[in-house]
Amino acid sequence: MAKVSAATFRGTWGLDNHTSIHAAALSERFPMLHPSSGYRSVQRNRAVGGVPGSWHTRRRAVDWIGPVNVLRAAAEVAWMQRVSPGCTGPEEVLLEYAGTRRQHLHTAW
């Protein structure tokens, strides 16, 4: 997959500006990652089994799919990623459902 720009993460995936910058940087570093979920309304979040108050409903989370080895490597990078002088890093980085059809990397900034 080609690199996904911060503008695309803002427009298509509905993310806030800071999260979009993080997501674009991760996408550039790991071209085999594919975003599978970004912003969700509270109703959509509930329908997909998301937790109440999810970072997705605040425009600050991205779920990624890809090979598990790439998801693991991306998780390590996401924990260390800082994109601006005041950036404190991620709120959450979770490899969920590893080894199943539902495996994905959840990142929130």
Task: Walk me through the structure.
The chain is an alpha+beta fold. It has a single domain (6-108), classed as Muramoyl-pentapeptide Carboxypeptidase, domain 2, CATH 3.30.1380.10. It contains four helices and four strands, in the order H-H-E-H-E-H-E-E. The protein has a four-stranded antiparallel β-sheet with strand order 1-2-4-3, with helices on one face. Strand 3 and strand 4 (104-108) form a beta hairpin. The protein is globular. It starts with 5 loop residues before the first helix and ends with a strand. The model has no long low-confidence stretch (mean pLDDT 94).
Give a brief rundown of this model:
With 109 residues, this protein is an alpha+beta fold.
What are the SSEs and their pairings?
Blueprint: H1 6-11, H2 17-29, E1 34-37, H3 42-47, E2 61-65, H4 68-80, E3 92-96, E4 104-108
Antiparallel strand pairs: 1-2, 2-4, 3-4
Identify the notable features of this structure and list them briefly.
single chain; 109 residues; alpha+beta; 4 helices; globular
| Overall structural domain count | 1
Instruction: Give the strand order of the largest sheet, numbering strands 1, 2, ... along the chain.
Output: 1-2-4-3
Mean pLDDT: 94
- CATH fold category name: Muramoyl-pentapeptide Carboxypeptidase, domain 2
Strand content: 15-25%
Shape: globular
Helix percentage range: 25-40%
Largest sheet: 4 strands, antiparallel
What is the CATH architecture term? 2-Layer Sandwich
Q: Strand pairing plus helix content: what structural class?
A: alpha+beta
State the distance separating the first and last CA atoms.
Answer: 23 Å
Helix/strand order: HHEHEHEE
**Count of individual beta strands:** 4
Sequence stretches where pLDDT stays below 50 over 5 or more residues: none
> Count of helices?
4
Radius of gyration (Å): 13 Å
Instruction: Kindly provide the name of the CATH class.
Output: Alpha Beta
